[in-house]
Design goal:
About 60% of the residues lie in helices and about 0% in strands. It has about 110 residues and is an all-alpha fold. The mean pLDDT is about 80.
Length: about 110
């Protein structure tokens, strides 16, 4: 079978690395990482214990980060939800970006 350019012969980790290597997806991951670091610093500096800074990274990585609703309570679970949401969203963003750049090429004939 000749290669089709759709990536159907690639393993899942190789396809994910290909999609997450997109410039726009990497930019999104960088913004999410920056927001997460900012939220951690602001929350650590707040001595009242009422910081809502953790909500910003959750919003930036929604809907994937809504996983936090089913995870047990805790700071580590918030971190897992934000990281998982960012990776899910970056994968979709990278896939869409590559599909848009590809244009009409690579579509199936009807």
């Amino acid at each position: 079978m000749p290669p089709t350019g759709t990536g159907s012969g690639r393993s899942l980790p190789r396809r994910l690395r290909h999609v997450l290597g997109d410039v726009i997806a990497l930019g999104y991951l960088a913004v999410c990482a920056g927001l997460l670091v900012w939220a951690i610093v602001v929350t650590a500096a707040d001595d009242s214990g009422e910081s809502m800074a953790g909500v910003i990274p959750l919003f930036a990585t929604a809907p994937g980060s809504l996983l936090v609703l089913v995870l047990p309570e805790g700071g580590g679970m918030l971190l897992i939800a934000v990281v998982a949401g960012a990776l899910i969203n970056a994968t979709v963003i990278g896939w869409c970006s590559r599909a848009l750049r590809r244009g009409g090429r690579g579509t199936t004939a009807s």
